[in-house]
Structures are given as structure tokens and as C-alpha cells.
Amino acid sequence: MLRGKPPDELSDRTLKGLVITDSLTAGAISAAGFTVPQAAVQALRAGADMVMFGLVHNVSAQTTAVASAITTAVAGGRLPRSRLISAAASVLAARHVDLCTT
What kind and span of H or E run contains 66? Predict the structure, then answer.
């Protein structure tokens, strides 16, 4: 839970700025029974804009697994596409990128 609110009570007005997770490879994540891809989906659902994970043996495989889990969650209705659009907008805003300029 971010700022004490469950995911269904969060809105773009609730959180200001960019919300980034701590490393999803942390022992507490795996001890809670989550894989990094599962934790990434849950973090995005909870309002994180960017997910981070530490050094792993095969970064490419881990990144692919996270992307696949996110894609599957969106396709299965467990992660709204609008949440990803909002997360991407937050990341771009933090980087001062405006895709709507001509």
C-alpha cells in the first residue's frame, strides 16, 4: 500500500511525482512468496510508476519475464492499461519529456 491507501483508492491526484519501487530482488519480496515479475505487477497495480530490480545472473531474461508478466496482467484484466499509461506519463514528466510538442 502506498501512503496507506489500497490500489483502488489511488488516483493521479493522490500521488505527486514519480513513484519508484525499491529493488524487487530484495529478500523480503521472495520471502513473501513473490517472484520479481509478480512483484512488478503488484507494484504497478499499487501505484508505482517504475519498478527496479537488482543485479541478477541474466538481466535480459529477468527484464523479459517482467515485461511478459505485465503484458499478461493487462491482457487478463488484472492491471488496467490506463495504469501503465499513467505510469509512463509520470516517468516522462519527471524526465521533462512532452510527447505532445510539435
Answer: helix 59-75
